[in-house]
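Title: Request for sanity check on SDR family oxidoreductase prediction

Description:
We are preparing a figure and want to confirm that the structure record we downloaded matches what your pipeline produces today. Could someone re-run it with the sequence below and paste the raw structure tokens into this thread? We only need the token string, no images.
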Amino acid sequence: MKVVVIGGTGLIGSQVVARLGEHGHEPVPASPNTGVNTVTGEGLAEVLRGASVVVDVSNSPSFADDAVKEFFRVSTSNLLKAEAEAGVAHHVALSVVGTDRLQASGYFQAKQAQEDTIKDSGIPYSIVHATQFFEFAKTLADSATEGDTVSVAPIKIQPIFSGDVAAAVGRTAVGSPVNGMVEVAGPDVFQMEDFIRKGLAVREDTRTVVTDPNGLYWGIALQESDLLPGAGARIAETRFDEWAAGQR
């Protein structure tokens, strides 16, 4: 089947495209650098012609509250309208475990609005909720660094390898719409301090990592388990230490 992957040249999208191709499907990566822009609508009608499924793994170029809300509002609305006109039978979107619990953040407000728009569109859909990726430990550290110290919130995290996220998105795309949410997570639960420390060690980054009882996650206060998936989550196989060994 023809599967259009919005954000198909990024970290997750490129892996989704590769996996779908390996399984005999016709994946089409779509992003501004391939001439498809969901914000302006450029190239949408053309790329969706004949598509059975659309996978949206795109992200906002800016995480400022107003900009990210506008990005997801406009891009999602444009995409769903074009899908309806093209007769697309399944819309798959990648989102984040705990989105509904993180609504003090403008970014997660935008993601929740995106999900609500998808649910209300009338197009059969599946939303894949993933935990944080192994690859983003440094990004998390950078957001919480002052001087040479990384002060992180006293919360738990169950991170996942990006390749396992791509596999879950690909499986969902070629399956029947669930008209609901699928959660995926890595096999191990860490304290945030331990995950960040391990992630920095992979990069030989010597910053000191500590838990701050008043620490925030992207600027918001969380309960200890807010980033963890529910009991029915699909658990991926790749462990952090296995992934880390391949990075050295």
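Thanks, this matches our download. The first helix runs from residue 11 to 22.
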